[in-house]
Automatic annotation (TrEMBL):
The keyword Nucleotide-binding applies. It comes from Bartonella fuyuanensis. InterPro entries: DNA_methylase_N6_adenine_CS, MethylTrfase_TaqI-like_dom, SAM-dependent_MTases_sf, Type_ISP_LLaBIII_C. Coiled coil: none annotated. Residues 55-181 form the Type II methyltransferase M.TaqI-like domain. This is Putative helicase.
Amino acid sequence: MEYKFRHDIHANEIVLLAYYIAAINIESTYHSLMKGEYIPFKHIGLTDTFRMLEEKNLLQKLFKDNSEYLEHQKKLDIKVIFGNPPYSSGQRSANDNNTNVEYEILDRSIQNTFALKSQATLKRNLYDSYIRAIRWASNRLSSQGGIVAYISGNGWVDKAFADGMRKCLRNEYSSIYIINLRGDIRKNIKSKELSKEGGNVFGSGSQNGIAVTIFVRNPNKKQPCEIYYHDIGDNLSTEKKLEMLQYFDSIGGITREDGWKIITPDEHGDWLHQRDNNFETFLAIGDKKPHSKKLFETFSLGVVTNRDAWTYNASREALAKNMSNMITFYNSEVERFNNAYGHVDRRIRTKAVNDFVDTDERKISWSYNVKQELIRGKIFELEDRCLVQSLYRPFTKQWLYYNRAFNERVLQMPRIFPMGKVVENMVIQVTGTGTQAGFSVLMSKDLPNLHAIDTGQCFPRYIYEDTTVSKDKNKKQSHLFLISTEESKTAGLQKRDAITNEGLEHFKAAYPNETITKDDLFYYVYGILHSEDYRSRYADNLSKELPRIPCVKNADDFWKFVTAGRELGHLHVNYETVEPYPVTFKKGNPKQTEISNPEKFYYVTEMKFAKAGKEKDKSTVIYNSNITITDIPLKAYAYIVNGKPALEWVMGRQCVKTDKKSGIVNDANRYAVETVGNPAYPLELFQRVITVSLETMKIVKNLPKLEIRETE
């Protein structure tokens, strides 16, 4: 034991206080076991462990003894690595001025392994700190064999972004043991507890799902990697999970209880919730790969602003004022920055900007893009044409400042809802991969936010492109993003189908005796995506990839899905004009009340459910101090969209909220009065969405059973 303590145990810490605490804890643990003379623990380094691989390590330069020890540590043949790595790194907001840390060598290793083997579109989560720690440990562990044991985030075990990581780890280790402790608090919230995640083993210290993973490398073992998996169980409290871990005590304890499930990975790199391979035979709804067969020519994430409190508001007037104030402050920062760094090159300006700008969140919300505009010295003014209506959340419209400079990512949206133009279009927005709230879909005629449907991908009915006329050749040309030059002039917008000809031919071939249009296909997709059979049968596929659209067995069912999709689309797009459900007014019936001041009478700050003892009574909603409605049919809450009942989206958004960081007030009543011209709009919206919910579920329940054509 003494030899191990003096020679074989090593530790690193990056924070000075944690460095001293770790050393003391190791020393006290040793002396509680060994007694006798006090021996200080000397094999601990003050360092960023990941930075040890890089050419430069500032901490090593600061302390000579520390530097010498770290050089010694780097030469050791490490057989065991264990720890609790941080789960994420870097800044949440550009106002933090906490630039995301980059590790050139380690990140290149991730790029050449985990990322290279991945089929995922978005791979940024592969650079989270705990993923870096797993990559670092595998690189650092002795080639002669050893063990890595981590308690870390559990996202890598099943999420789509980590498919390549799972493929690599399977080749790098001989055995992997995973104890999934679950406890993903966000997933619990978004799924309304249906995910059964239970408590987090770190209590309030973490909201991420947690796993204990033991990676074993045995170079003498020639068989494929064996993967053992244990799920701690549904809805267990923090205390119960810790109790079970103490009971198991070791890998052997779980083995004795016959608690391991042996995982056989599939070709996708899925270990859990493996996909139905028949899904691949269906037509892709969309695909970014060139020359791929797909139904929609293009698709896009919803608008990403990175400053929703500033760029969204229920009031057009308030939005214009907020953005005007922010733009004015931004311009003053440009002037101040130019005065200080106006005569230096871009490299120096880029390096200086983070420490220079005023990060007062009541004046501005910075982001990478806006800082880049400041570096370029770009001045802006408020543009009235950028004030547009947007679907912010299900059945909730807000005003948006739709602008490339102050929206962090507009992506393909200008081809779907062109900036500064009034056009007619519809999109089918589906949940993106890796969502925590389950699959969802919603049709809209308004420009959608990224999270109108969680991380939503939008498939449009039409594409709009600017058409220019060449002065030299008098020939029209289409451009995705028009650049004004002396050689061309704007000829207007060109509108065309977003559904591909090959997609149409695919379905015409399946039903040769039918006359099918692209409109029919648009609504067929919407009908299919509402099928409960489809969602349950392909749930694992839908959690990891975009939908694929099957041909149903016969033409009769095809037309039933088209009709249902059209009816659902009409309900969801025109939700503001459907007939309000006739609730009972327990208090404040407008027809029986003399209303001298409608704005005051209908003013809502927060809708609440009534209480039946300690439980919520969802049949009754307290709208405000004047109005209480009851006899709300409970089956209306069965319509779940984006993780919760549509009615609860209305309740949660028709309110008055103040953003803590900026102090900006977002008052839904102002949309009712200023935009709709009806102070009763929030109340009537709730009633209308009852109708939408009931009718939606009626249509969904009457969809035909999903029977797929055998030829696919």
